[in-house]
Amino acid sequence: YADAAEPICAVAQERIDALPAGRFAETPQERAIAVREGTEITAQLVADLKSLRGLVTDPDELRILDAWFEDWEEGYLVDRWAHVERLEMATLDTDDRDIAFIIQERIEGGFYTRRIDGLANVNDMPSCVVPGAI
Questions:
Q1: Residue 98 and residue 86: Cα distance in Å, rounded?
Q2: pTM of the full predicted structure?
Q3: What's the CA gap between 130 and 127, in Å, rounded?
Q4: DSSP of 8-33, one letter per residue?
Q5: Contacting residues for 85 by C-beta, under 8 A, at least 6 apart
Q6: Residue 22, C-beta contacts closer than 8 angstroms, at least 6 positions apart
């Protein structure tokens, strides 16, 4: 699984890294365009990774992988889409703290970003960690 997943993650990370940095956006809506695109890339990444699920045959490993997908889908992506919405609805008067990316812990067992990164790192998939700033 890791050998098949890493190149897919690497391509997604390259696409995300190529997006304009937030510090260059003049308005929250301009920033939202890049954040939306990065979130769409990440959502497609997760779908692509899930399509490889059949490569895992061990039931315990499959359970761990499914929990990883849950962290992506029910944690990270939910928070990213909420961030996009906050940016799109913001005005120039909106306080920066109100449009910052906020990790909402909805899943038991700690911050989902640590679990996502942990599984990626333990399985030698360095590009499959949570993307850098989008």
A1: 8
A2: 0.88
A3: 8
A4: HHHHHHHHHHTSPPGGG-SSHHHHHH
A5: none
A6: 31, 34, 35, 133
Lowest-confidence region among 4-8, 56-60, 110-114: 110-114
Cα-to-chain-centroid distance, residue 82: 12
Q: How far apart, in whole angstroms, are the C-alpha atoms of residue 70 and residue 75?
A: 7
Token code pair at residue 75? 């944690």
User: What is the token pair recorded at 27?
Assistant: 């308005």
Q: 120: which 2 tokens?
A: 């990626």
Q: pLDDT tens across 95-120, in order?
A: 766 666 655 555 444 588 889 999 99
Q: What is the DSSP string of 85-119?
A: HHHHH--TTS-GGGSS------SSSS-HHHHHHHH
Integer CA distances (angstroms), 65 to 55, 70, 75, 78, in order: 11, 9, 15, 19
Amino acid at 76: Y
Rounded to whole angstroms, how far apart are CA atoms 87 and 96? 10
Element (H, E) at 61: helix 59-70
Q: CB 57: neighbour CB atoms within 10 A? A: 8
Q: Average per-residue pLDDT in the chain?
A: 89
